[in-house]
Amino acid sequence: MMENYYLGNGRKWTYINKTVNREITDKATDELINKLLYQRGLYTADDTQLFLKPSLGNLHDPFLLDGMKAAVDRILLAIRNKERILIYGDYDADGVSATSILIRYFKTLDLQVDYYIPDRVDEGYGISETAVEFISNSDFDLVITVDCGISAGSQVAEIVEKCKKRDKTIDIIITDHHQCNEELIPDALAIINPHLPNSDYPFKNLCGAGVALKLIHALGICTGNARAFEDYLDLAAIATIADIVDLKGENRIIAKFGMEKILKNPCVGIKALLNVALSNKTQIDSYKISFVIAPRINAAGRLGDAGIAVKLFTTDDESKANEYAYYLNSSNIKRQEIQDKIFKDAIKIIESDSGYKDEKVLVVYHKYWHHGVIGIVASKLVDRYHKPVFVFSVENEKAIGSARGIEGFNIFKAMEQQSDILIKYGGHEQAGGLTISASNVELFRKQINIYADDLITDEMLIPETVIDIELKGKDISLKAAKQISQLEPFGCGNKVPVFCYKGAIIKGKKVIGNGQHLKIILEIEGRNIDGVYFGKGYLDKGIYENDKVDIVFTQEINDFRGAENLQIKLTDMRLSEETIETNRFLLEAARQAECLDCDENWLYNGIIDKIIILDDIAVDRAILVVIYKYISQKGTININTPDLFIHSGILKRETKININAYKFLLALLIFDELGLMEVVLDEQGNYTIRQPDAVSKVNLEDSEILNWANNAVRGFK
């Protein structure tokens, strides 16, 4: 937003600023990388080497997982007896990948294996009642869950009991990675989950596909092929990154070697998906997996049959793989269209209802919004408003909702406080799902805001940008970008390093991408550096060459036509601290002048403290004439706070006169006072300026506002 550029009030900049203890860092590592490693909790040379040079040999023994031996013994029995196996997965990228990993592996053992993925809308997460009936009436000998099942105690018991009534014996193995509620843990033949109570497994943060990979690792050891799991690292990497688990420890190893496999030798399905999703398939990173590949996998489950993704990843037929990949790509396009429409509808609802402005939690609902995308819409609304959001789709007297939160506000506890009016709910601190009677949605909106009012402070509603290090110019270079790339793959728990530099000079700018983005040339300590500011094309009208700016950015390598160059990707940019301080002072002075209630001592202190100079508040006839002519040519216009700086900046550059936001607003107020223009202030603090049909000759000395301003200036001379 333009207001952030001029006044610095968009995001709060927070610096990590950990001091490196040089005695326990790797002296062979560059100082900048040393600082970044230290901030990531890597304090010793051994820690840094394990992080910078991950090895498959550093994966933990899979048999350290509780339940692994029992699971492996049972599967080996199934192999010997050629039993029928069902893989029960989940409809997201993790569940689909985990399902596909086991299917591909079991096929190499010549096993008869089927799979079941529940319908997202009709069945929901976990082992559904529909699935209970299906499994209970089928002839499977062994069921293995992936990415689910740890809370399915009653469902597992029901399946076993119904099979027993048919004189059918069925064994169930649970593999999962979610937190455990001890009261709901199933009585299964084996349970593999690093979060099991009293588990001694050294790494707790595997995703569902990661747990499945450990199962294959263990089976491979027992069948004489300990490296069998390596064939499935590509799928496991996609799941690990897509499921937003910490990219540390085993997850870092899986992600790094999995992405290498995607580049060099992916399975047929991944190759087909890359062909439809990426124009450049020679550069695969965690960002592309998170925001290009994973959404296409998830799209099938959101809008239709997630089983298509399983078919994609388990086929070796290139023609079929291409067909499935195009289907997923088309589903993703459709998902984006549906999602974008709902997002726009939600914004319209929020911004047309003044009640939302003062509410700390946004509860928005509409009939027949698609259940599969309302979670994404909730996330996008959190990004836009930086408030917790509940989005409901109302259908047949029920409202099905998804929630997303902000730091410091626990979504699950918030729902728990409203449990008396909820039909069902579940989730964790940052996200959740719930069902409520449609007639109670407005009551929920009221009550959740009463609950949140005491918990959410005004400061919590200000979005935060966390900055790793404030850099000197020497640390902004292609060499630094290459060193930073050693920390890849980036993701949850190992975020892309974010830097700040203060005092860059804008030397050039260009709108790109059909007006959506901004390319900027920045002078940093005598060197020109290319920067790109995605999604900020609208800033073009308000920034000028030679503006002195503070920037927040990441450093990247731009490999264009084989030539490597540094490119910085801006994540925030605003005028320098001293300019922002001046702008805030001048805006406050203009607001006070509007009420003829400005404290002259306050103004004087601004000059003494060198926030402003006397000429910044000096208004004369020549300046008023310039501003009047400029506004008169525009007819009726609307002006918000940033526009005061934009228009005054244009005039300052055209006339070489010191015209600023204070003088511009003061001029508008004087014109209104004297009847030269009509200036109307609305509730949002915006001005509408209209030209009267006829203007009489006026005497500027009749303006109380101008006289007040001139008297204030004379008092300082």
Describe this structure in words.
The protein has 717 residues and is α/β, with parallel strands linked by helices. It has 4 domains: 2-11 and 470-575, OB fold (Dihydrolipoamide Acetyltransferase, E2P) (Beta Barrel), CATH 2.40.50; 57-332, inorganic pyrophosphatase (n-terminal core); 353-461, Diaminopimelate Epimerase, Chain A, domain 1 (Roll); 579-714, no CATH class. The protein is 42% helix and 18% strand. It contains 24 helices and 21 strands. The strands form 5 sheets. Strands 3-2-4-5-6 form a 5-stranded parallel beta sheet. It is elongated and about 105 Å long.
CATH topology of the largest domain: inorganic pyrophosphatase (n-terminal core)
CATH class of the largest domain: Alpha Beta
**Architecture of the largest domain, according to CATH?**
Alpha-Beta Complex
Structural class, by secondary structure, is alpha/beta
- Shape by Cα distribution: elongated
Q: Tally of extended strands?
A: 21
- The fraction of residues in strands falls at 15-25%
Number of domains: 4
Q: Report how far the terminal alpha carbons are from each other.
A: 38 Å
Tally of helical runs: 24
**Uncertain residue ranges:** none
